[in-house]
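Q: I have two molecules that I believe assemble together. Could you output structure tokens for the complex as a whole instead of separate predictions?
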Amino acid sequence: MTKYYTEEHEWIAVTGNVATLGITDYAQAQLGDVVFVEVPTVGRKVKKGEETAVVESVKAASEVYSPVTGTVIETNAPLADSPITVNEDPEGAGWFCRIEMSDLAELEVLMDEAAYKTFVEGL
Amino acid sequence: MTMHNVGRPTAPATTDATAVASTFTGNRGLAIEEPLLFEVGRLDVTGVDFDDVGAFEPRLGGLGRTAPVDLPGLTEPETMRHYVRLSRQNYAIDLGLYPLGSCTMKHNPRLNEAMARLPGFGDVHPLQPLSTVSGAVELVAELGRWLLELTGMASVAMSPKAGAHGEMCGMATIKAAIADRGEARDVVLVPESAHGTNPATAAQLGFRVVGVPARADGTVDPEEVKKRLGLEVAAIMLTNPNTCGLFERDIVEIAEAVHAAGAYFYADGANFNAIVGKVRPGDLGVDAMHINLHKTFSTPHGGGGPGAGPVVLSDRLAPYAPVPFVRFDKDGSAEFVETRKAAGERGLKPFGRITAFHGQMGMFVRALAYMLSHGADGLRQASEDAVLAANYVKACLKDVMTVAFPERPAMHEVLFDDHFLEGTGVTTLDFAKAMIDEGYHPMTMYFPLVVHGALLIEPTESESKASLDQFIGTLRHLAEKAKAGDAAAFKAAPYLAPRRRVDETLAARQPKLSYQS
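A: Yes, here they are, computed for all two components at once.
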């Protein structure tokens, strides 16, 4: 499994051609208490950069963009009843969906953990 | 002498006035701690003395209620006290300055209320024969004429019942015009600083929403708009003045580019109060704009309702306006067109009907009374005073708080960000809670989202200088207190409100929407 990050504070964990999507610890801290999460439906085709999930905090609703193109094959259903998981374990149990990627070349422009850490420190 | 020593003392005792006592009742002086109606009343009693109905045969065909209604029984004094006590806990524009930015908490002149209650206006029914309500129809037509004059537009749809309803009406008109052209444009451009209702309206009508980023100075970049224009773009939705309280100076260039690309220009008129009598949207190239009659020509935003959101339209969109409407002839005479058939016979193509009847008659009366009592010069002055008040607040606070866009004059509202609180440990939320202890309803906070920790202040035109000075003094005091390192005092605020801090997160995660005993 390899983990990649975006400048919009999403992460994906890639195993084979399947990417698990979530938001980073930095993102959850900025958003504050998450009160609602909307995940995509299984089977939905998503494009790179497309709105794929919605995270709502007490402050505002934020869109989560997919860093890759592909098809949603699994979603994290328990999040609907337990949005707090996104705050408690954003890079683990707080994942949103798994996407079967159609273009592995899209991974090349994403950051690794060290690069994202440097990116966040510069914010 | 006669020693009358039974009188009450008339000078205050020297006591520590700042000590906060806890009370047996939970009441704070004459501010009464009020339980829910369900907790006051009992399910097994009634406050009304009905005769016993005795045995009878219900004729509801088995559809009669079998379970108890579960409504609390209360006496008349209990009911009355409950609501009067709640009303005393409410903060209102009639109690004090209400600086809620983006909302225009406008003073409602009482003259308007008197006019709206005249029996010929207050008691009309929408199904009355036209011949019995010609005065009311004339009032609607007259108000329409004023709106056209003030906006420089060709036509007006009077029936929408609120701002967002007006947006829906204006965008539905655009959709109908595009369909009539035989085109399939389905994208609507919406700047980042837009009111949330703009993208929601576009999406509700089946458009795809594409965002336009804001420039560093808080306004929309025409180049960013041009980059996104194309054959699939139906319209742009732009608020002017925008939600940062800034006038969009490139609006004419944006309108021209939008028109050249074959799209329409929808202006959100929510902030029209800042420019009435100064700028006519029709001269800027606007194709459709809703006007919040509340917020602009009477009554505060959310001030007990109802609202009204007439939409003014350009020549290009006028034929598609919804029925019913009052149509003006060149000679100034007016005609009431009530059905699509009648409109069709006149060569018009209304997209349909957006509300059952004719709109909010009460708001029409209030708005026209406001216009007639102010006159053209008074309307202009109200706008100027609203802008002056916001800029006065900005000028007096710019050294202790951080103005988000200091180079630009503010319009009707001034936007601060939370840089002035950096390192103090106090957040915008804490600052707002401390304002409550000082007797102020907080300003709009954390909106617009384009600046960090936003504090958006709209004092409106009706505050006196003394009122503004006290408000400014309060904010200065709080800003200085925060910078002096007194964060702990802010974290626990408000101390004096009926409720301290409530758990908004828990309320959002596990909302309880009905009473359960």
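A: One point stands out. Chain B touches chain A through six residues (CB under 8 Å).
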